[in-house]
Amino acid sequence: MRILKFLTVLGIFLGVAGYGILHFGTKFASEKIVDTLSTELENSGQMEEIKQTIENDPELKAFMEEAQTVDSSTLPFTTKEEATKVLMQKVGITELNDIRVKLQDGSMTKEEALQQVQGKLSAEEIAALKVIVYKELYE
Fold first, then answer.
1. Can you tell me the distance from the alpha carbon of 63 to that of 137, in angstroms, rounded to the nearest whole number?
2. Element (H, E) at 110
3. 84 neighbors 132 (Cβ within 8 angstroms)
4. Which residues, including other chains, have CB under 8 Å from residue 77's CB and lie 6 or more apart?
5. Helices 2-44 & 46-56, crossing angle to 10 degrees?
6. CA 69, 112, 33, 125: dihedral to nearest 10 degrees?
7. What digits encode the pLDDT tens for the residues 81-123?
8. How far apart are CA 91 and CA 120, in angstroms?
């Protein structure tokens, strides 16, 4: 009987600890990723390069302009950290990195990348990402 009580308490403790690590670990990792990437993009001048790429590509420009008409109060998240957390949970860091590498080496088109990500996110989450990127680039 004592062993059963011990195993039950141990199971509950491990469950709570696992949930805490998952929740707070994901939050910490997403904040760290956002801070690092934002700093790198701003310091390297790639932010201006990204803006120019969007301005020169009519499809990307139209895609980003949709963000201007979205009602922010209906979005599932509104910060970069929350967006990163959702992307890490639904798409995964490994898959996001694979998409990035394939886009850079030209083995994947931007349409394929968008389809792959859109397949894992809801329409509201896509809209929230558009709004966050738009604000980050133009405000």
1. 14
2. helix 110-118
3. no
4. 83, 85, 86, 125, 128, 132
5. 80
6. 40
7. 888 888 888 888 888 888 888 888 888 888 888 888 888 999 8
8. 6
